[in-house]
Design goal:
By secondary structure, the chain is α/β, with parallel strands linked by helices. The protein is 34% helix and 28% strand.
Length: 330
């Protein structure tokens, strides 16, 4: 079941009004059962357009997309019955109570009457809205409205959940609460999750797709993207030095074959007359080289030096995102 392709996108394009400029420009990807996919890109990159096509709200200009084996254009009713969708602007009837609204959604979604009580009980518990069932939706905080929006998206037990900016406009506490709900839901369903909060993606998603200017520019786990994007590997060193030391660590380390470049990264520099203290350096390794063993040996044999730290540095998701989206001209 885990290998089943739940979402298939092939050379998908969308041109609004025949302008010749594609909001989505030939993207292809698959999402398998049980994956939580982070869907990232700058404003205007085509994320929301792609999601609207996947949910059958928009027809593609060309290419194809399938959800659970059903074409989003040719078999849209089957697609809609298998997805839960939370758009960026949550569609709620503010003059209804939470319970009235969820019962209305059950009607729209054809949830069998004999199963409604158990379904409602489960989603109410899952989304943490049990003490708000009698409240008018218009009187709820935005965080609770988002919870109600999530509840309506899963009340019919869809196979696929598509969430477009589900934490937009929430405060940090509300974001943490919604993130917990999404992680819980993601244990049972295939999820596509769009957000601008990169920390959420690392905390929630098993895989990331990045699009820029309508094109797919990256696809992989957070660690995969960091490795592919960072280029030459870098190493953070912290070296302790004592008064009377006759050697300069920069000079010693530059003689190691596997090092491309090395720089001191603190403001105090290295001074022979100073009291014992530590200095940090960033080492850039040559492509394919791992100089850590040589670094340890050199520092160990140098008079008055101690290797206090040697940590490989990994590009952050923010670094990866900026590099991939700015180089694409987004």
């Amino acid at each position: 079941m885990a290998d089943k392709v739940m979402i298939h996108v092939e050379q998908l394009r969308k041109d609004y009004g025949g302008t010749g400029r594609f909001a989505v420009d030939g993207i292809s990807f698959d999402v398998r059962a049980g994956e939580v996919l982070g869907f990232l890109g700058p404003n205007g990159a085509g994320k929301t357009t792609t999601m609207k096509i996947l949910t059958s709200f928009l027809a593609p200009t060309s290419g194809r997309a399938e959800v659970a084996g059903h074409d989003v254009y040719g078999d849209s009713l089957s697609v809609r019955s298998r997805i839960g969708y939370l758009p960026e602007d949550t569609p709620l009837y503010r003059d209804m109570s939470v319970l009235e609204y969820l019962e209305f959604v059950c009607d729209v979604r054809d949830v069998p009457k004999e199963k409604r009580h158990s379904r409602l009980k489960r989603v109410v518990e899952q989304c943490g809205i049990g003490d708000r069932l009698g409240a008018l939706i218009g009187e709820l905080s935005k965080g609770f409205r988002q919870r109600v929006g999530l509840a309506q998206a899963i009340v019919h037990e869809p196979e696929v959940l598509i969430l477009d900016e589900p934490t937009s406009g929430l405060d940090p506490n509300q974001i943490a609460e919604i993130r917990t709900v999404i992680k819980s839901i993601g244990q049972e369903k295939t999820v596509i999750f769009s957000t601008h909060i990169l920390g959420e993606v690392q905390a929630t998603c098993s895989r990331i797709i990045i699009i820029s200017d309508g094109k797919l520019v990256a696809d992989g786990t957070p660690d995969d993207l960091a490795r592919k994007s960072s280029g030459a590997s870098s190493i953070l060193l912290e070296i302790g030095g004592a008064r009377g030391n006759e050697s300069d660590p920069l000079t010693l380390l530059r003689h190691i074959d596997g090092i491309e470049d090395i720089k001191a990264i603190n403001t105090s520099g290295w001074s022979l007359s100073d009291r014992p203290r530590a200095t940090q350096f960033r080492v850039i390794a040559k492509t394919g080289a791992d100089p850590r063993g040589d670094i340890a040996r050199v520092i160990a044999t140098a008079s008055g030096m101690d290797l206090l730290q040697m940590t490989p540095e990994k590009a952050s998701l923010e670094d990866v995102f900026r590099k991939l989206t700015t180089t694409q001209g987004a």
